[in-house]
Amino acid sequence: MFQKYFTNLFIAIIEEGSSYKLFSKVVKSGKVKEKFEKTFETKASSEELDDEMSKYLISLQEKYNYVYIALLLNSMGQGAIKGVSDLEFERSKVDPKSVKAVKFKNWSAYVSYIDINWIKKIYAKVGLDLVYSPFIVLYNLLLEHKLKTKATLYILNQENSVTVSVFKEDILYFGAFYKVNKEDVLDGIDVDGWENEEEEESAVEDLATLDTQDEEEDLSDLDDLSELDTLDTELTQGDEFSDIDEKNGIDSLLGSDVDDISIEDIELYGRDLEIYKFLNRALKEYYKNEIYESDFVEEAVIFDAYDMSHEMIDSIENDLLLDLQMHKIDIGETVCDLSVKEIYGKL
Asked: Which of 132, 74, 114 has the alpha carbon at shortest distance from 343?
């Protein structure tokens, strides 16, 4: 218990595209003494941290008595399912032997061993103390608010990803994770021919099956991986998108004439469009797939860590027929606070 009376540094690492955003908080005797942030750019295919970032983290580890580094996962080989048994994993088309799972009262979080080994390799020089799933972050956020007695769609909106789950009180019914690539979004937009947008092949009828891995190795290098607070079922890009008028959609979402639209506006619209399509597909999967106990969803709660336009919010309310609640959050500080609570609860 004495450790909390010393200076403790908590660092949250948020990967957003090619950027690593670090949010740090200095805590002593349960009180925040200092907060600071730093961003690093890195190569997309890099197999190790940028030297500058590694040196920065190592310097902080040398400066403070106790340092805890937490990573928010953004990989696609993660998920959350209702159930805790191997049979329930297989029913959700997830090989229980290929994933590291953390089990809760009625649901499980998992991440593939492939992703675990990749993380260990990248962060080998500095080490990791805590690894969080966006689903666990979302779950803790909803616990901070009054639990809903009806099935509710919860959304964590980040710069390059969207995490959704359906909870009834604290019981998980459904979860999905989607990554948004800004470059792909921009390349895929045809401003002159919205009505001719090519239909995409749906990939949500079957949740992604992880290849069986024999890698059941010791994971002790990630001391708190057992607290890998939940991840969820990946949905790949695809599915028909016919719930809004795409020819006029750019005008309605951007609120301006097509001739006056900038590249930044197109990129933002493309991102909003992709998110809308993902939410539409996720709800269809939730209602149509028999593996889910699909109570009707009337309300959505959005924890917005990036930028969801008012036009996009209107489209979700009007087209998906959901009553919305919005909560702006700082994802770095949110993860950092979660790690403070995690560690201080052990001291």
From this structure: 132
CA–CA distance, 35 with 169 (Å, rounded to integer): 33
SS3 category, 276: helix
Q: How far apart are CA 101 and CA 240, in angstroms?
A: 32
The answer to whether the Cα torsion of 301, 306, 310, 314 is positive or negative is: negative
Instruction: Go through the domains of the chain in sequence order and give each one's CATH number.
Output: 78-108+146-216+231-329 (3.30.420.40)
Residue 118's closest CA among 75, 161, 79? 75
% of residues, the chain, pLDDT over 70: 72
Q: Where are the alpha helices (DSSP H) in 232-309?
A: 246-254, 263-288
For the record, the structure tokens of 149 come out as 């007695």
Rounded distance, CA 92 to CA 209, Å? 8
Distance CA 142, CA 264 (A): 32
Q: Which helix (H) or strand (E) holds 323?
A: strand 323-328
Token digits of residue 33 = 């003494």
Cα 251 to Cα 261: distance, rounded to the nearest angstrom? 9
pLDDT digits (tens, 9 = 90+) for 306-317: 888 787 888 889
pLDDT of residue 131: 94
Q: Which two tokens stand for residue 167?
A: 């909870």
Q: Which value, to the nearest 10 degrees, does the dihedral of the CA atoms of residues 245, 246, 252, 254 take?
A: 170
Rounded CA separation 283/277 (Å): 10
Q: pLDDT band for position 231 (50/70/90)?
A: very low
Lookup result for tokens 């924890």: 303
What pLDDT was estimated at residue 202? Answer: 37
Mean pLDDT of 56-64: 96
Residue 191, phi then psi, degrees to nearest 5: -65, -30
302 sits in which H/E element: strand 299-304
